[in-house]
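SAMPLE LOG
Freezer: B-3
Tube label: C17
Construct: single chain, 357 aa
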Amino acid sequence: MNVGAEAEPTQIRLVCVGDDAVPTGSHVRKWMETKPLEDIEIDIQFDVKLASALEILENGDTDLLAISASSWYTCKGASDTMVAAVLPRRDENHILVAEDRLDYLDYKSIILVENRLQRRQLRRYRPDFRVLDPVAFADMIGRELPSDTGLELQSWMEDLRATKIITGYVSERHLFDTANIDCRRHMLMTDSRENSARFLPSPLNGLTLLISRDGFPISLSEKIGDVESFTAWECEQIILDRINLDVHDRVGMIVRHRQIPSLLNQAEEEKDLLRSTSLLDSEGEIVDTASMVEILIEIVGKTGERTLLLEKLVQKDDVATHARLLVSEWEELLDVVTIEHAEDIRLGPARPAFLDL
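STRUCTURE (predicted):
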């Protein structure tokens, strides 16, 4: 594709980074099913390693590189490239693979969870569960753990579940679909109508970026990209850059656009008078009909008993500035809840911090 040409191209070349262990290929295929550009042919190459994909992009042999947002964030990008667009967010929440929903599983069920955030969220939801890291469980039962995560680890845990050694395990939707497992799956939802529990996803989960060389046509980026997902990428990376790297694996986060009617319905369901009044004027009319951006960030203590959750609803204009201000507030709150209390003549004897990370 000649990005310097005035006329838009009739063909886009795209390479997807990663194999079946990552969701990129699945997200691109689902995106293609929506026919994002009916007048432009998209030629796609799957299962390309990152180093090879960057070389192909640098040499001009492809126009776009599709990669998961977490992978791009980890490798800190590449010179002379830009995030041209972000695909619609998909499957950002993890799933529980088990015969029944969380509420109906047996007392002290054994659940294997690789991710520290989901382990703590499950302990918060059901303190009776034995929520374990697969590595720790393998040591307990004397079984060898697969050297690779992803599909191999899921197959190992599925064998334990099928033989009733464990009750269930937490995985990701694309791995479950790829393995074609014959078992029920249950989404760990960000919002649940059945109860007030929230399972905020890991930062950047479900986001797939389209990377280009500098100078990719803006008009084409706007056609192929999703505005809400781009907002999520922009804000979540800003927040991650500014919080301590040591707590990244136990922080839940999501940034999303919210329509005012949806926010009012949620406020009514949750009996949230403060939110409902902030969106309505004295006559009960909606103050602003434009959609807003909701930012949720939480960190859960080791036992799941205590959580620090910060929730902000901001205007879409200059959302990046709002994200930076939110981080400042978050850091102040985190300092307060994680500081140990020394003995004080007025406040009493020494005691541990409110939140044990």
